[in-house]
Amino acid sequence: MSDEEHHLESKADAGASKTYPQQAGTIRKNDYLVIKERSFKAVEVSTSKTGKHSHAKCHFVAIDIFNSKKLEDIVSPSHNCDVPHVNRTDYQLIDISEDGLVSLLTKNGNTKDDLRLPTDDNLLTQICDGFADGKDLVVTVMTAMGEEQICALKDIGPKN
């Protein structure tokens, strides 16, 4: 092995991958999985038994965690599926710009200014109304496979 190859390997760390493999037969309802390069949450999982001429199959009905589109996939239970690393982080909402960008306060005191308001109408209304009323709001941002989106809201009371 050359020094150059070894140097590249040493740069990788445990969190370097956006996904990890998991055997399809072990994925259950409410688990995450990757279908067509997108992050999904399984809402229905069923496994068929082996037939006379076929192998067992896992049937997944899943919803995209960012745009709520439903998709189905069928995989052999012994094959690996990619599972996304999904993280949730809370940030305090500082400001909402006219073009729909939000300014968030991170735990270390910096600002995060690269997120848009959510597309979910109910959550969007709650955020805009709470912000207009001068409430202290904490938003939860879900991150998976390089995508991130506001997915939840907590009202921590009126601003002092």
Automatic annotation (TrEMBL):
Keyword field: Hypusine, Initiation factor, Protein biosynthesis
Modification note: eIF-5A seems to be the only eukaryotic protein to have a hypusine residue which is a post-translational modification of a lysine by the addition of a butylamino group.
Pfam families: eIF-5a (PF01287), IF5A-like_N (PF21485)
InterPro entries named in the record: IF5A-like, IF5A-like_N, IF5A_C, NA-bd_OB-fold, Rib_uL2_dom2, Translation_prot_SH3-like_sf
Residue numbers spanned by region Disordered: 1-21
One of the GO BP terms on file: positive regulation of translational elongation
Translation initiation factor 5A C-terminal domain ranges (all copies): 85-154
Biased amino acid composition, Basic and acidic residues: 1-12
GO molecular function: ribosome binding; RNA binding; translation elongation factor activity; translation initiation factor activity
Membrane-spanning residues: none
Recorded family membership: Belongs to the eIF-5A family.
Function according to Swiss-Prot or TrEMBL: Translation factor that promotes translation elongation and termination, particularly upon ribosome stalling at specific amino acid sequence contexts. Binds between the exit (E) and peptidyl (P) site of the ribosome and promotes rescue of stalled ribosome: specifically required for efficient translation of polyproline-containing peptides as well as other motifs that stall the ribosome. Acts as ribosome quality control (RQC) cofactor by joining the RQC complex to facilitate peptidyl transfer during CAT tailing step.
PANTHER family: TRANSLATION INITIATION FACTOR 5A FAMILY MEMBER
Protein name in UniProt: Eukaryotic translation initiation factor 5A
Organism name: Asparagus officinalis
